[in-house]
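Escalation from tier 1.

The customer reports that the assembly of four entities below gives different structure tokens on two consecutive runs. Tier 1 could not reproduce it. I'm attaching the input and our single run for tier 2 to review.
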Amino acid sequence: MQAHIYTYRYIMTREDIKDYFNVAISVSMVIFAFDGEKLRILIQRRDEDPFNGAWQLPSRFVRPNESLELNAKMLLEETIPMTETIDSYSEQLNAFGKVYRNPLGRVVNVGFYCIVKMTDEDRRMAEQKGMMWAAYTEIPDLAFDHNEIIDYAKQRLKRRFKRRPVGFSLLPKEFTLTQLQILYEGALNKKFDKRNFRKKVFNSALLIDLDKTIETSYGKVSKLYRFDEDKYEKMSLKGYDFLF
Amino acid sequence: MQAHIYTYRYIMTREDIKDYFNVAISVSMVIFAFDGEKLRILIQRRDEDPFNGAWQLPSRFVRPNESLELNAKMLLEETIPMTETIDSYSEQLNAFGKVYRNPLGRVVNVGFYCIVKMTDEDRRMAEQKGMMWAAYTEIPDLAFDHNEIIDYAKQRLKRRFKRRPVGFSLLPKEFTLTQLQILYEGALNKKFDKRNFRKKVFNSALLIDLDKTIETSYGKVSKLYRFDEDKYEKMSLKGYDFLF
DNA sequence: TTAATATGTGTCAAAAATACACATTTTAGT
DNA sequence: ACTAAAATGTGTATTTTTGACACATATTAA
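Tier 1 run:
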């Protein structure tokens, strides 16, 4: 607080730089979730100008006393309050700073993305609150440059999938290998051979066999697995690359 | 221009958001170069408060009519005017937005890094202008959070080295395989077996044998190679991963 | 002429990636 | 009760990639 007052006075006495302090910062969040079939991204209807009524990414101006990360965290919590976001994966993407990207004035947007476990409650809530879980491959036209931000997020997610076990943040704690494979195929836009996929996953030795099965809609029951986070932590300390 | 006047008046009438437009954006640039032995990063002495006299990354406030990328480009050109920066590799790192990172007020810094071919002229110029090419592994304490930005840039460079042939942007157009290996060893902080290194490089089939040699200070003459950019362009279109 | 320093080259073994097919279990429909 | 459809789950052979490893040759400095 003290520091803020101090800096405010300081700026007032520095005529040479005063004109730079007239930009706004906003944060946008690309929230990825997986419904068992498809990867999805949460978008919402704007209810004010500019672009009133258009779809957009959940976004928020940065207040003077909030760091970017704190702002992103608050944005996430107010957008999907029902979801456990504490252990979700979140990361900054990039600053998007085209001069006229926002007609209100100079707004530099800092994009974030995160990966959450979607709950049924979230899906119901979403529709009530003017939000939509849009399919990864069918994102409509969005306000501002938000389509560009999503494209960037998709690329980043793809890279992360190849090197880090982020996929598990999208699945329920207990999952089947088929779910895992569908997820990877969706994220990397590529088909895998079932036997080779499983071989690779088992070789990583990061799955715990739960000795439990779950009924699928049709066909045999599936075995359930869990991701061994502790083991991964230990391995990743010495620069370990995950799959693919 | 028209748009700028429009947005200015618009903001004036929106009391609810006016308070957000009081942040400054700065751009910092981590400039990597290679002197044949070591990777180096360009730093400069500050000549004004705050942190007067301290080392910092080349930095610049963003003016209202400049995009982040344009600003970064101008920063690079005014910092090392003698270097050909047109074909150098440049990329945004991240936005650094801690609340009190700059005592002047709320300044969000957008970090960039770039990779240039160092010329002898640059090295001489640098010292005259209060700049220093600091060794990659021995960066002194810098103003603001610039050490943090450099750490981030080093990580990013390491990742890029593994997947993209960015190394060639650091070497002269014609280089020896020993130079290439020293560079990779420095960037990845890892030793390679000479025969295996060469095997891998040749397998990529992206080097053109120039049928020329160059005298080294001691020992046999070395063969010179050039990087085949056209061929790489074609290969990278279909998601090609470089070496290591 | 000798010692020091640098370049440049091939083989073998292990590990990883890839291609490929069928038996089993369960449900839905008749 | 039977059949068709849909899903799970499993092994082997081949190719490719990685990694370990040693010495002859050219050049310069002393």
